[in-house]
Write a structure and sequence with these properties.
The complex is a heterodimer of chains A (241) and B (115). By secondary structure, chain A is mainly alpha-helical. Chain A is built from 10 helices and 2 strands. Chain A starts with 11 loop residues before the first helix and ends with a helix. Chain B has 115 residues and is α+β, with helices and mostly antiparallel strands. Chain B has one domain: Arc Repressor Mutant, subunit A. In chain B, a hairpin with a 2-residue loop joins strand 2 and strand 3. The longest helix of chain B has 27 residues. Classes of the chains: A mainly alpha (241), B alpha+beta (115). The interface between A and B is medium-sized, with 27 and 33 residues. Chain B: InterPro entries: WH-like_DNA-bd_sf, WH_DNA-bd_dom, WH_DNA-bd_sf. Chain B: This is Transcriptional regulator. Chain B: It holds the Pfam family HTH_34.
Chain lengths: 241, 115
């Protein structure tokens, strides 16, 4: 762009490419993807001790029943606070650069996921003890995936898809798709991962402790992926500037 | 200059319908940024469009007179800030201009292929 007034006979190709270039620059300047990912990573990693402390485990000769009460006591307020913090950060950063922010639909989606999580886990806690799904037998894979999807780690991914769409951010879209594949199809976020015995110190042995421990690795993996994503996007942004 | 926001006449050449207010590189740039940003500060526009303050003010004034943007002046601390917001008419004019440019490009390409 120049300071001169330009005639209406401007090359339409150039005008269109200018419009696209400027729109792309604005979008890049509005982004604060790394902050969103780091906040979500922090919330995920801080959840680990809460999950351990709030988990209710009852074992008898027939087996163990556990209830992850952090899903109700920790996650809903943590998600609401996280999305509020992300929205405030986006608005402040965009304002400092002289721009408006387009984060509100993401924050609203995030808050909605907290409501969905609360409703789903309240309903499950009330209904499933007396009516175990599939008669207490083995669950089909689609049910497991659905369970993982309405867990906090899956809902974080769903909300990130909305952010990627809002920002028209292809790298974030690819990252989120990878993250969703991981937390929905690969890592047993809701069932837990049994650790090999040699990895568990003797003072942590015992069925209930092992059950609590089994829930930790999936959370650490999800948190580590979000953390790595946050660091990666932060480095990429620094390089762009 | 006035804003023309009517639909393009399919029978006429797309150049006929071009809006002089919008079909100008700097003003088109201002509208594109304001549309994407929702709200944009004067300093950001000046940097991105590489304009002097006086020149940018003139273009903003043309767009404001045409009802395509709103200009809001205020203070942040002791610093004066001017925020520009695109109006619904501005969004419509931008979309229409982009549509006409695409038609124009398509027509030029078709004509070139025919030769």
């Amino acid at each position: 762009m120049t300071t001169d007034s330009v005639s209406t006979g401007d090359d339409p190709h150039r005008l269109l490419s200018d419009v696209r270039l400027l729109a792309g620059r604005v979008r890049r300047d509005q982004r604060l993807t790394w902050v969103a990912l780091l906040v979500l990573a922090a919330v995920t990693l801080v959840a680990v001790p809460f999950d351990w402390l709030f988990m209710k485990v009852q074992c008898d000769d027939g087996g163990c029943m556990f209830s992850r009460r952090a899903m109700l006591y920790y996650w809903p307020p943590a998600l609401l606070l996280a999305y509020a913090a992300i929205a405030v950060s986006y608005v402040r950063a965009a304002r400092a650069r002289g721009l408006g922010a387009r984060v509100l639909p993401y924050a609203i989606t995030g808050a909605a996921t907290a409501v969905v999580l609360t409703a789903a886990y309240t309903a499950a806690a009330a209904y499933f003890p007396s009516h175990p799904p599939f008669g207490g037998g083995p669950m089909p894979f689609w049910w497991i995936v659905l369970d993982r999807l309405i867990a906090p780690w899956g809902l974080i991914g769903l909300a990130l898809l909305v952010l990627a769409r809002l920002e028209r951010n292809v790298p974030l879209l690819l990252f989120t798709l990878g993250y969703l594949v991981l937390v929905l199809l690969v890592v047993p976020t809701t069932e837990g991962m049994r650790l090999p015995d040699w990895l568990i110190p003797s003072f942590l042995s015992g069925t209930t402790t092992q059950l609590r421990l089994s829930m930790t690795p999936p959370q650490l993996i999800a948190g580590a992926v979000l953390l790595a994503g946050g660091i990666g996007f932060s480095q990429a942004r620094r390089r762009q500037r | 200059m006035t804003a023309q926001t009517g639909t393009p006449d399919p029978s006429g050449h797309p150049v006929i319908g071009l809006d002089e207010v919008v079909h100008q590189r700097v003003r088109l740039g201002i509208l594109a940024i304001a549309h994407e940003a929702r709200r944009v500060e004067f300093g950001y526009l000046r940097t991105q469009l590489d304009l002097t303050a006086g020149n940018l003010s003139k273009h903003l004034s043309v767009l404001e007179t045409a009802g395509l943007i709103d200009i809001e002046k205020g203070y942040e601390g002791k610093r004066g800030r001017t925020w520009i917001t695109i109006t619904p008419d501005g969004n419509a004019a931008l979309a229409e201009e982009i549509g006409r440019l695409k038609v124009l490009i398509a027509r030029v390409e078709t004509t070139t292929e025919d030769r």
